[in-house]
Amino acid sequence: MDAFEGTMLRAGAVLFVTVLTALGAQISVPLPYTPVPFTLQPMIVLLGGAALGARLGATAQALYLLIGLAGLPVFAASPVLPQGAARLIGPTAGFLVSYPLAAFVAGWLAERRFDRKYLTSLVAMTAGLVVIFAGGLSWLAYGPTALGLSGAVTTLTPFLAADLVKLCLAAGVLPAVWRFVGRDS
């Protein structure tokens, strides 16, 4: 494979993960007690980061945010905010803007072979999820909605169990893929 083909393959992979993130947002379940919907995005962000590596994983998420900022309907449905820049100041902004860093963290650990075994993959995915929760929690607590730390924790607690299940599933994907294609060592 020459340099051009490699570049095109990497660009296609980044675009693919960007599209998957947008699709994950469309699988959105609004919850009555919070402005934050349940989506598949965290799992896709972490898997994409681990599969693409730190730089490309973060690039895919930054591209997702830029596309959403431009007004394309890639963010999860919201009863109060239109698509576009308003989402990056609304209640879910802390989660959204944490995606590039979360993908970077999961990717950085994957580049150090944390993606080869289930337990180490779980560590990489957990580290990325901590970044997402820290971003969302801090924004809900101290951003424009200003729920305070206690209110933000109460709002996010129901997401923890579902995100842990998604995390456990995501952590098993890459080790299985690498075994299948013969790159598990």
Termini, distance in Å? Answer: 23 Å
- Write the element-wise H/E pattern from the N-terminal end onward: HEEHHHHH
Count of discrete alpha- or pi-helical segments spanning 4 or more residues: 6
Strand order of the largest sheet: 1-2
* Largest sheet properties: 2 strands, antiparallel
Topology-level CATH name: Arp2/3 complex 21 kDa subunit ARPC3
| Mean pLDDT across all amino acids | 90
Low-pLDDT stretches are: none
Known CATH architecture: Orthogonal Bundle
The whole-angstrom Rg is 16 Å
Report the β-strand fraction as a percent range: under 5%
Helix content: over 70%
Counting DSSP E segments of at least 2 residues, the number of strands comes to: 2
How many structural domains does the protein architecture include? 1
Structural class: mainly alpha
Note the overall shape: globular
Name of the CATH class: Mainly Alpha
Highlighted features:
185 residues; mainly alpha; Arp2/3 complex 21 kDa subunit ARPC3; two-stranded antiparallel ribbon
Summarize this entry quickly.
By secondary structure, the protein is mostly helical.
Written overview of the protein:
By secondary structure, this protein is an all-alpha fold. It has a single domain (3-181), classed as Orthogonal Bundle (Arp2/3 complex 21 kDa subunit ARPC3), CATH 1.10.1760. The protein is 70% helix and 2% strand. It contains six helices and two strands; from the N terminus they run αββααααα. Strands 1-2 form a two-stranded antiparallel sheet. Helix 2 (41-52) crosses helix 5. The longest helix is centred in the C-terminal third of the chain and has 34 residues, at 148-181. The model has no long low-confidence stretch (mean pLDDT 90).
